[in-house]
Amino acid sequence: MNARAKAADRRASALFWGAALLVIAILAGIILYILVNGVPALSWAFLTQAPAKMGREGGVLPMIVGTLVLTVMAILIATPLGVGTAIYLTEYTREGPVTQIIRFGAESLAGIPSIIFGLFGFIFFVIELDLGWSILSGALTLAAMILPTIIRTAEESLRSVPVSFREISYALGASRWQTVTRAVLPTAMPGIVTGIVLALGRSIGETAAVIFTAGSSLRLPTSLFDPVRTLPVHFYILAREGISLQKAYATAAILVIAILLINFVAYYLLARFSARRGAVRR
Amino acid sequence: MAMTWQEKAIERLLFLIALSAVTVLILITVFIFRGGWPILAKVGVGKFVSGLKWAPSRGVFGILPMIAGSLWVTIGALIVGVPLGVACAVFLAEIAPPRVGAFVKPAIELLAGIPSVVYGFMGLVILVPFVRTVFGGPGFSVLAAAIVLGIMILPTVVSISYDAIRSVPRVYREGMYSLGATRWQTISMVILPAARSGILASVILGMGRAIGETMAVIMVAGNATLIPRSPLDPVRTLTSNIALEMGYAAGDHRTALFATGIVLFVIIAILNLIARRVLTGGVRR
Amino acid sequence: MAAIRQFRSSSAVRAGALALLVLFFIWSAAGCRARAPAGTGRSLTVAGSTSVQPFAEILAEDFYKKTGTNVNVQGGGSSAGAQAARSHVADIGTLSRELKPDEAAVLTEFVIAHDAIAIVVNPQNPVAALTTEQIRGIFSGTISDWSQVGGPQGPITVISREEGSGTRGAFDELLMGKAELTPRALVQDSNGSVKETVAQDPRAIGYISLGIVDARVKPVTVDGVTPSVETVLNKEYSLVRPFLFVTAGPPQGHVKEFIDYVLGPEGQKILRDEGLVPAGPTK
Question: What is the ipTM of this complex?
Answer without folding.
Answer: 0.86
